[in-house]
Amino acid sequence: MSAQPTPEPIDDARLLDTQRAFDSVAADYDGPRGNNALIQRMRQTLWDTVVAELGAGSRLLDLGCGTGIDAAEFARRGYNVVATDWSPSMVARTLSRAGDVSLGGRLQARHLGVQELGRLDGSFDGIYSNFGPLNCAPDLKDVADQCARLLRPGGVMVFSVMGRICPWEAAHYALRGRFRRAAVRGARGATAVGMNRHTIWTKYYLPREFYRAFAGQFRLAGYSALSLFMPPPYMVDRYERRPGWYERLGRLDDRFGKLPLLRDMGDHFLIVMHRR
After folding, report:
1. What does the pLDDT look like over 46-84, one tens digit per residue?
2. Domains of the chain
3. How far apart (Å, rounded) are the C-alpha atoms in residues 220 and 157?
4. What predicted TM-score, i.e. pTM, was given to this entire model?
C-alpha cells in the first residue's frame, strides 16, 4: 500500500491573511459589479443543481457564504440554511440578509472557517460551496471528513471550485507578457494571490485531484466546467461590450462543459458528490 501524502501544516498566519483580504472587500463585495452577468450565470448553475438534487425544506450547509447571496436565495425558496464563513465581515453581511422577513427565519449565519467544521454539530441534507472557498482550505481531507460527519447518508454536496486549467486566464496574462501570473494556477500547494492589497492563500485543483480527498466517503456523481468558453467573471468588461456574442459562447459551456477533457478546464468546475 502506498503512503498517503502528508497534509501541509495549517499556517495560522496564512489563514489570517486570507481572512483580512475578504474582510477588506466585504462592504463592497456585491458592487459595483453586483450585477455581473458572468457571476450570475455561474450562480444560477449552482442554484439549479442544488434544486435538482434536493427539494425545498431540506437543511443546507453553506461553506464560505460570503455576503449570503446564495444562502438567502435558498432560504427564499424554502430551504433551511446554515451559512458559514471565515471572514467576520462577510458573516455580518449575511446576518443582515437573514433579517429579511421574506426568508421566514430560515437563514442562520455563523463565523466559522472551513478549517473549523469540527465545531459544528447537526445533520444536513446537502452541503454547497460557491466560488472557491474550498480552494482556501488548508487541509481538504479534514474538510471531507467533517462533511461526512455532518451530511446524512445519501446526502448531496455541490461545490464550485477554482480549476487548475483556465485557458482564458492563461492567454490573458501571457499576451501581456505576465508569464508568471499566467502560470499561477499550475503551482502545487498554496500560492499567494493578491486581492485589494492583501493576500489570499489559494490551492488550484483538477476535478479528479480535488475528488481524491473525498473519495473514501463520497461517490462522484459528476462534474462540469464553468466559464470555459465564457471568460472569467473578472473579464466582464468584454462581455458588456458584446453580450450577444458572449452569450453564444455561454451556450457552448452549457452544451460541451460536461464532455471529457473539456470538463477539466474552465475558471471553475462544478462537482457533485453523494454521501455513501
Report:
1. 999 999 999 999 999 999 999 999 999 999 999 999 999
2. 34-165+202-275 (3.40.50.150)
3. 10
4. 0.94
